[in-house]
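Aim 2, interim progress. The first record below pairs a target sequence with its structure tokens.
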Amino acid sequence: MLGDQIKKMRLAYGLNQVQLADKLGVSKQSVSNWENNNILPSVDLLLRISDFFSCSTDYLLEKEEMTVFIETKNLTLEQAIHLQQLAKDFEIINKRLNEMQK
């Protein structure tokens, strides 16, 4: 559920609920309510959450696998390509690790 995804991303970023609330300009109670699936954020807030976590709204809504976007506008093309290659290398490493664990 959406609340579980928000909590997962918040914890991955090492934030508590108060810190996330401050970053999004909402109350700690709002974040708590989302994470407990008591209420849903507005569409505007959902977009702000996805922008903050650099992930798609589809990921937050569990419509697709994890896709995290990395802001590269202040990087050179070569630097952005290096980041892309690093991500591919991690995919290969994870695949090999998963195969070894079977």
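The second target in this work package is listed in the same format:
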Amino acid sequence: MGAFVAEVRPRWSDMDAFGHVNHANTVTLLEEARVDLLFREAALRGADDLARGVVVARLEVDYRAPLFADGGVLRVEMSVREIRAAYFVLDYLVRGGPSETDTVAVTAATTLAPYDLASGKPRRITDLERDFLAAWHSGGNGA
């Protein structure tokens, strides 16, 4: 199926003293894109348990070029690199604009674990979730 594409819009308040999106706010933009995939798209495809609890177990970010809050949107391409029994790895490629030809500004990866909020414990990935995640599998080795 290829990568899932989300658009995020940096806010003026995301910029730092150097005039580009602050590193911590970049991580928030990754989260916004991830919500589009794991909550909205997953619910549309019947895998809405992901929205009930997923925690970030690991985050890797490589900054390649500055991002700017100029009123436009950024393109975030996401794919699933790895699916295990109790976690999966999501890769991100953030472009400095809305086009697939815009400069790659950030690559990132998150290791995510489904989490049962009621019990306060990690849980296994369900078959429905595995099928949903597999639809976005990259088959590659990461960002």
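Residues 23-44 form the longest helix (22 residues). This observation will shape the mutagenesis plan for the next reporting period.
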